[in-house]
Amino acid sequence: MHKNITFSAEEELIKKARKKAQREHTTLNTEFREWLKRYVGTDKRVVDLESLMESLRYADSGGGSFSRDEMNER
């Protein structure tokens, strides 16, 4: 059974979050439920690490493969 809760946030932040969820084919409710599951099921340090890794995800798509010499160039 789902229970309703209410949060408050700045209107502009909510608009941006809704747009992001829509781009990701999800909803804020779904995202919040997933966040809540992670929050209660993990240690604070693990949550912080997951947040850091998520924020660095953009770097994973970069420049392809490099040779050993290319990686050691300065």
Give the topology.
Layout: H1 11-23, H2 28-41, H3 44-55, H4 68-72
The helix tally amounts to 4
What's the total number of strands? 0
- Percentage of helical residues? 55-70%
- Rg over alpha carbons: 18 Å
User: Unreliable segments (pLDDT under 50, ≥5 consecutive)?
Assistant: none
Q: How many angstroms separate the termini?
A: 58 Å
Largest sheet: none
Order of helices and strands: HHHH
Give the amount of beta strand, in percent: under 5%
Structural class: mainly alpha
Give the overall silhouette: elongated
**What is the residue-averaged pLDDT?**
84
Essential attributes:
single chain; 74 residues; mainly alpha; 4 helices; 0% strand; elongated
Structure, explained:
There is one protein chain. This protein has 74 residues and is an all-alpha fold. The chain has a domain at 11-59. Helix content is 59%, strand content 0%. The chain is built from four helices and no strands. It has helices at residues 11-23, 28-41, 44-55, 68-72. The protein is elongated and about 55 Å long. The chain starts with 10 loop residues before the first helix and ends with a helix. The model has no long low-confidence stretch (mean pLDDT 84).
Summarize the structure.
The protein is built from four helices and no strands. It has helices at residues 11-23, 28-41, 44-55, 68-72.
